[in-house]
Amino acid sequence: MKKIVLACGSGVATSTAVAKKVSDLLNANGYEGQYEIVQCAISEAAANCEGADMLVATTVAPAGITCAYVSGVPFLTGMGKADAEKQILDLMAQ
To answer: Which residue intervals define the domain Phosphotransferase system EIIB component type 2/3 in the entry (predicted)?
Structure first.
């Protein structure tokens, strides 16, 4: 089971939108039931990354994270989305 931390400024609005898109991506690629998504505020990201496989955040990577970082901004803007999706799928395959 992969643990994915999704973070935004407050842990509510944009992380929820990105969580849906990441979940749809993973399910469409055969990962349904193989991951857990945890949403949080970016200020809580470092603590939530303990034991996590990746952090997808709509902000810059915070100091002190111990897992892989993927920018969530492309899921909001559409620019660079294919690259972000590839990063997530590559991390899931590890």
So the answer is: 3-61
CA atoms within 13 A on the CB side of 46: 7
What whole-number distance in Å separates Cα of residue 30 and Cα of residue 91? Answer: 14
Taking the C-alpha atoms of residue 4 and residue 25, their distance in angstroms, rounded to an integer, is 13
For residue 54, the domain's CATH number is: 3.40.50.2300
- The range of the structural domain enclosing residue 37 comes to 2-93
pTM reported for the whole predicted model: 0.92
The number of helix segments (H) and strand segments (E) in the chain equals 4, 4
